[in-house]
Every structure is written in C-alpha cells, then in structure tokens.
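Sat 14:20. Reprocessing the chain from the morning session after the first attempt stalled halfway. Input below, unchanged.
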Amino acid sequence: MKLFIVAALCIASAIASPVYAPLPAYHAAPVYAHAPVHKVVVPEPVAYPKYSFNYGIKDPHTGDIKSQAEERDGDVVKGQYSLVEPDGSVRTVDYTADDHNGFNAVVHKTAPVVAHPVPVVKQYAPVAYAHAPLVHAHHY
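Finished this time. Tokens:
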C-alpha cells in the first residue's frame, strides 16, 4: 500500500509541475550606423549691465541716518554712501570699481556737529501751600 501511495504522489507531482520550454538563444541588439550628430550651441544674449539707484534713511527716533547712491555702466561701477556715526561725525565713502583698476574707495570723515546748548530758563509757577486741619482722634 505504501508503494501505491508513493507512486501516486510521484505521478501527481509530475502532472502538476509545469513544463519548461528551452529559452531562446540571446542575440545582441542590432547596431545601426548613423551619421554623426552636430549640435549647434547658440549662446544666450546677455543684457548690457546698466543701472543706477539711490536711497536714504533719516530716522530721528533711532538716530539711523544714512544714504547710498550707485550707478553701473558696463563693467564700471561708481557710488557713494554716507552715515552718521554714534559720535555725530559723518563718514562718507566714494568708491569705483572696474576691470582695469579693481575696487577703490576713498573715505572722508567730518567732525561731529556740536550743537551749542541753548540756556534754558525755567519759570516756576507759584506754589500755594494749604495746611490741612489737624484732627485729633482719641481712642479710649
């Protein structure tokens, strides 16, 4: 009986297993000869660099007082900025930059502005004094 069961299982597994066909032989992809491709590179146009700007800040609350102006024409840049230092002096910087001379700056500093104190005359209003009535409280 065991032999019958073993034989039946072998036949069943042989029927259930897939049959593999041989794989086709590998063939390399065909190589085609093409004419060489010439890529034409067109450079993008570059705008001529030219601008000018300026700004200024004058904030009496914080004491932030400064300004700047600059202009560029091609590769030449010229400008100036100034600011009020904490001691009241004004620093002004004039600068230029180009391909031939590089960056150059000239710094000027003015002496602090000293305001002459204005004498203040205080006038006091007359003060009226009133005496409060004296209250004596006796606790018994």
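Residues 62 and 98 are 36 Å apart (CA to CA).
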